[in-house]
Amino acid sequence: MKPQIHAALAATVLAAALVAQPAAAAKPARCKLTPKQVVTEFMTEFYLRKNVRKAFETWVDPGYIQHNPMAATGRDAAIAFLEPFFASNPAIRYEIKRVIADGKLVAVHAYGRFSAEDRGIAVVDILRVEGCRVMEHWDVVQPVPEKAMNTNGMF
């Protein structure tokens, strides 16, 4: 076989092999944010801007696991509950006091009030993050008492 024909045949076989191989599955872009940054973005959109759907659809995995026994699990369940809750409580306000991260777990300490006259609640949300998605949530809620046994404050 002449060298030119051999090279052409090899090139044809190689091209056919490349075309016949399935395309490599596109890998999702690697998250460049830390879990703390993801949760800060999520909570800012959710707690402060009150954009429930946008916050959850942007930052929360569809298979989101909810540990609060008073709430259903799953991203869609959270949206279905929280959108009307925020709509029916337009005066509700949250202040994020601190965000603490330990690896994939992020805790958000917040102060929530239903009205300006309300003493409010102290909330600690704990979220597990994988990549750029909130995967799991726990929370602890404590009412701000009328009188405290100390002057340290809750926040």
TrEMBL record:
Q: Tell me the superkingdom of the source.
A: Bacteria
Q: Which residues form the signal peptide?
A: 1-25
**Alphabetical keyword list:** Signal
Q: Which residues form the SnoaL-like domain?
A: 42-137
Does the keyword Mitochondrion feature in the UniProt annotation? no
In its UniProt entry, what is this protein called? Membrane protein
Tell me which Gene3D superfamilies the record gives: 3.10.450.50
Query: Tell me, what's a Pfam family for it?
Result: SnoaL_2
Q: Which BP terms does GO give this entry?
A: polyketide metabolic process
Keyword check for Signal: yes
